[in-house]
Amino acid sequence: MPRNSLGRIIFDGNTPIREVIAALSAPLKKQDGLPGGIALIAGTGGNLAGIVTDGDLRRGLARGVSLDVPVSRIANRAPIVIPDAVPLRERAAYIRNTLLRKGSLKKYVEKMVVIDKSGAPMDVLTTYDIWQTADSRLKRVGVVGLGYVGLTLSLTLAELGFTVFGLEKNKKIAENIAAGAPHFHEDGLSELLKAQRGKNFTLVDDFEGSRSVDVYVIAVGTPLTKSGAPDAFALKEVARAIGRVIKRNDLVVLRSTVAVGTTRDVVVPILEKYSGLSAGSEFLVAFAPERTVEGKALQELRTLPQIVGGLNRASAEAAAGVFSFLTRSVVTLDSLEEAEMVKLINNTYRDVTFGFANEIALIAEKWGVRASKVIKAANFGYERSAVPLPSPGVGGYCLAKDPQIFSASARAKGYRTALLTAGRRVNTNMLSHIAHDALAFLAQRKIAPLSAQALIFGIAFKGFPKTSDMRGSPALEIANALRKSGVKNITAYDTAVPAEDIKRAGLSPARSWQSAVRDADVILCMNNNPDFASLGMKKVCVRRKKPLFIFDGWSVWDEQELPTLPLVVYRNL
Questions:
Q1: Which part of the chain is the UDP-glucose/GDP-mannose dehydrogenase C-terminal domain (predicted)?
Q2: Confidence (pTM)
Q3: Which residues are CB-neighbours of 433 under 8 A, at least 6 positions away?
């Protein structure tokens, strides 16, 4: 049924332009529910013969058209219309396909007329109206950066029915994905890639033409510079590329971890500069941080609450409309900055609490007390205490980096952090402490560093859930510390990390863990890969004929039996 108030903006084609301007200048009542700046031209039988917008009026006057000529002289006789029979959730796709068919996909269509089967106007909708009612899965999503964050999100969205285009600049990574072989270990990822590749997920080199998208997700890495400041180089590069192709009403979502204020102060100005469009009104911008744990990302994308903050309310609602398909719980915040801070809070909290546990370990060692034992006792049945267990450093791409990004965000407002910085320092010092103990053992046994054999179990930054990610790995930090002290023969064993990756890290992959244990002078277990617990370490160690130092950072081996072996010096936390 036509909107009752529609008659206020319908005119005969012979109506003078002057009268149409006067009518359009009159304020519309809120209850009318009609957008301003548009007049409908009625044809014979009440069908839609054309429309006149503010832009048509301005262009006509600029050409010198008299205000007394019929309005049909300046009308758009082939406007974009939507048949009323098209379901609400499919109207966005209908408009897109219509523009694509006409070869004018980049054309901005601000208002569209809904018509009945006879061609008579029934309603006028804005692009925002269309966006709000559209099924988000009909929007095409482009994900820039197909690392851990980007690839898992891309394939999850594809599995949910979205059409997803993924762009990755690293040629080796792109080749692996194209071949159906992810470049990192994640439970279920290989199977999901094979199922969605060429179906709902397509690898692309750009977002031009038929590869044009409606939603851009930026998932590139944001490392630190040598001075410890956030490096936004890749982020800026991606923003420039998106700015060159973005259309009106598109949505840009940042998924990368950034310093507070980066989206508004860095990314938005670049998008506006290269697109010539205004953020918030002509295109939308939101921040939705990734918070999954490596190894369980595909599961957590579907269960964790998604955090969304927008440049304005429309931006936040549009992003929430997409992420609501991932999980039932979407937390919509009031600003970009709030959403940016959430991710930094999550990871910094973990780093600080791990730092507290590791400092307990350092103190406990001085007193001959085992830290893990007393922490478990402190937590047992005491709901107000949830101290984590100590660990051989805190690794990973995010946990070691994000506290520094948070501290940089504080410095930007003139505040210098104390607790955040202290926690990071303790976690870094833990690695130096472990290396010192290993080197002290070699010195006591008069084993020259150059001839010493070191074996590291667990090269990935963590062992459970399993991952092949070596970014920010405590094991690699330990290896570097040993090298600087003259230990050159370092072998590594990790069931989740390919041998080629271990070689690229500058270490020798173990041919077998048994032979590596027999040859080693120092063994360092640096992650909690569950495969290590069942290796039968004692059976191999008991046959050894020379002294051995074992640091069991996660107590994965038999802490009752190994210390009893005569040639073994066993340490844990």
A1: 455-559
A2: 0.77
A3: 362
